[in-house]
Amino acid sequence: MSEAAVALPRPAGARVLTWLQNYGVYAAIGVLIVVNIGITPHFLSMENLRTQLVQVAPIVIVSLGMALVIGTEGVDLSVGSVMALATALLPLYLGYGVGPAILVALLGGVAVGLVNGSLVAFVRVQPIVATLALFVGGRGLALVLAGGQLKDVHNAALLDLGSSSVVGVPLPVVVAGALTLLVAGVVRRTTFGRQLVAIGGNRTASVLSGLPVRRVLLLVYVLSGLLAAVAGVLATARLQASDPSSLGLLMELSAITAVVVGGTPLTGGRVRVLGTVAGALLIQLVRATLIKHDLPDSVAQMVQAVIILAAVYAARGGAGR
Amino acid sequence: MTTEQAAADAPVIHDTYRPSGRDRAFGLIQRHGATAVLALLLAVGSLAFDRFPTGENLGDIAITSTFPAMVALGMTFVIITGGIDLSVGSVFALGGVLAAYAVRWGTPAALLVPLVVCGTIGLVQGLLIARVRLAPFIVTLAGLLGARGLLLSISHEGATTYLIPHGSALARLGQGRLLGLGYPVYLTLALFVVGAVLLQRTGFGQAVYAIGGAEDAAALMGVRVTRTKIIVYALSGTLAGLSGALNAARLSSGVTILGTGMELDVIAAVVIGGTLLTGGAGSVSGTIAGVLLLGVIQNLINQIGDLSSSYQQVVSGAFLAVVVVAQTYLSRARRM
């Protein structure tokens, strides 16, 4: 009975929670920026902004794919392993030129997405288990391909991807921004986007109303794999090395955090693309703030834990309307 | 109206619970498939490698499997209720660091401190999940970060590794052997027997299954849903802490980098053992088979000398995929 009482609408509180759910991320980012301008020296320097944005770019790219997957009431645990796979494939094919090497790395991500998507769409395995298999196996495969070694990357054209700029904006940031707009457009303006959200809302109803549920699900996991591979390529270019044993470790958790903090419910049926980007920025900003003030990583992790809980608590309140 | 509905519903319910020969066969494969494959692998391994069936090697498999097994026992309870616990890897590492830190106050403290702290972490997660009704995935994800943060702050950001003095009672507990098997192996076996009895023979076990099957229905039938869920997460945290403490005792130090990704390995073992992630079905004996299966695969790959350990991940991943696909088909075939 007490559970029922908890779920009853509480007008004023619920309204605050709903507002927090919708705009809390942006408000938190705003507060953090203002605080940082006040207390952190050199926070507004171009140098610092560039560093922060370049660091967050791969997380944003992976989170975009994760947001689509979570929108269908799924989850993709394999994204970190896909990054490892992409970074392991790159040096193997650099001999054929940068274009082919990047293409192969991206195809690796697509292949992983196809396996995940087939398991979820056709075999109807729960997403968390389906993607767990490639979480475990994908990094192993990457290590086998790379012979378990870290390789330095010397290819100038590839390194340019990590270091060059377009009108002063680092290329990884440009790519992340372009992909954000693209994914936001897909979610808001295309049939595919509507179908994706409908499936997340109610898969059975979507089947009954004739939506191509399996095709959409397959494509969503392929996109997630592809985006993770893009992040893997960009991260390799920035780090100037291919290290499949550590690249993308815990990336799945960072991406899920960004998506959830950004207001996309884990229960699917809604995708908030800009919120997701804001979620990734917020986490990066928190970490940067703590590190700049010599607060250790341990505190950063605990703060991140609190942020996640606060975000879902707000989401729960909004959902209980 | 209600009688009509009841009449219409009755045959369906009856259908679901009438085991035909085929259903029973599928059920057997689902529940004992891991055990069968384990037996097969042991036979193949014994025939193929002279060094595989030796007492020393099997003892090795037992002791390396024992720590994930303890964690997997708690995870089995959690997953049967339809939940998940992502925090166990961090809690495992935290348990080890706490044990190595607290050994200065004596062996009982070295065991008690990790059990209490890790049990409390589990309890808090259980409260957030059962009372505040937050998603288990998220709460335990936060727990993963929080426990790792706590561990880092105890170990001065991972810079300090606390040592367990050689010859102390705690070290003996982790390293001692009886009949070729390490002490922790016996403890794990005892815990699994207790776990099996708890799950199969008590009201608490019935409640765990009922909640995983249909939480609302269980609540309406008077099952104490909130209390059961809290206990389950507290249990998972406690077992992960205990496992970490004993592992630290075996290694003579509280290694800070352990347990990363362990949660997913443990979940894989539980799933391979026939426990459904959707909740409501599973067994403790299946879990032990799942953990041993992954341990044996790793050992066999080590036997094939020139293969790197990366292959173990590939094989485990492929194996998990096969098991999951098979399980999905089996459980659907049974339901039809």
Automatic annotation (TrEMBL), chain A:
Membrane topology (UniProt): Multi-pass membrane protein
Transmembrane segments: 23-44, 53-72, 92-115, 127-147, 167-187, 216-235, 247-266, 273-292, 298-315
Protein name as it appears in the record: ABC transporter permease
Chief localization: membrane
Species: Actinoallomurus vinaceus
Domain of life: Bacteria
Keyword list, A-Z: Cell membrane, Membrane, Transmembrane, Transmembrane helix
Compartments, record wording: Cell membrane
From TrEMBL, chain B:
Chief location of this protein within or outside the cell: membrane
Keyword Membrane: yes
CDD domains in alphabetical order: TM_PBP1_transp_AraH_like
Name the record gives this protein: ABC transporter permease
Pfam families reported in the protein's UniProt record: BPD_transp_2
Location of the protein in the cell: Cell membrane
Topology of this chain in the membrane: Multi-pass membrane protein
Record field: transmembrane: 28-49, 61-79, 86-103, 109-130, 137-156, 176-199, 230-249, 284-301, 313-330
Domain of life: Bacteria
Keywords: Cell membrane, Membrane, Transmembrane, Transmembrane helix
InterPro entries listed in its UniProt record: ABC_transp_permease (IPR001851)
Highest classification ranks of the organism: Bacteria, Bacillati, Actinomycetota, Actinomycetes, Streptosporangiales
